[in-house]
């Protein structure tokens, strides 16, 4: 081997080692952030264990060792767990002044990698429902002020009549830093409007963090009111999910992680996050956005959004189609 070839191999080897060290450090930083933002929920009152703390990547039981027949079963079990449908509740807490804050943004996601489908809808902040902690009827966004993350998740579970696997709580003020770290977002704005000193023209517009926060907050000047605001919030969330899939995000990861660590809490473990990253991308290719129908009503001088039991049953059936559709289809084929 001549001298030039040895030099080339040494340089290439150093490059490989350097790259490996760099990505290993990134991996450890992600893991550290995941541990910092992890906050499990206590067990539900009607359950003996916390069903939200069962990562999809972890098999329910370990196969007995020493038999060849258990290996395929273990693989099938792991594959089933890695590809099972999951539900995630994303809520943004808007704190202004000294109040405890309210979950003014409530977005439900159900994703099924087998069906390659994701269901998404917003729950209007003024929706009247029973609070999980007190049993009283109130606006659904008040659940956070009364009982924090746990009350919010349990109240939404009761409203939808379905369990929620994971939650992600985002501080809306810190939300703008995450958007800036990702290089901003581009959305297709349906209506031109001005809000908090910013002008948002109709059509495709680029938003940095502060503009995105203002864009997500406005509702009084929107022809669709709270529904229009919900749509804008969903647009931003979809853009952020798309950004997370881009390879260019790796170069901004340190800053993104720092902002996430300061603004996010979740019961997703690090293993859960890895599983969602690798196995649920296909579900984002087809996002079905629903709207919860209802009507406004005044009770004791306070405005509420009333959702009928029929509408709640309809939403529940849509959720079930995504979460259990693949299993039902497979059962019908085998019958």
Note the main attributes of this structure.
six-stranded mixed beta sheet, 335 residues, transmembrane, Aminopeptidase, alpha+beta, 9 helices, LytR_CpsA_psr, Transcriptional attenuator, LytR family, two-stranded antiparallel ribbon
Describe this structure in words.
Residues 102-245 form the Cell envelope-related transcriptional attenuator domain. Keywords: Membrane, Transmembrane, Transmembrane helix. Belongs to the LytR/CpsA/Psr (LCP) family. Helix 1 (3-37) packs parallel to helix 7. The protein starts with a helix and ends with a helix. 45% of the residues lie in helices and 21% in strands. The protein has a six-stranded mixed beta sheet with strand order 11-6-1-2-3-12, sandwiched between helices. The chain has a two-stranded antiparallel ribbon with strand order 4-5. It has one domain: LCP protein (Aminopeptidase, 3-Layer(aba) Sandwich). The model is unreliable at 47-71, 73-77 and 329-335 (pLDDT under 50). A hairpin with a 2-residue loop joins strand 13 and strand 14. It has nine helices and 14 strands. The longest helix has 35 residues, at 3-37. It is α+β, with helices and mostly antiparallel strands and 335 residues long.
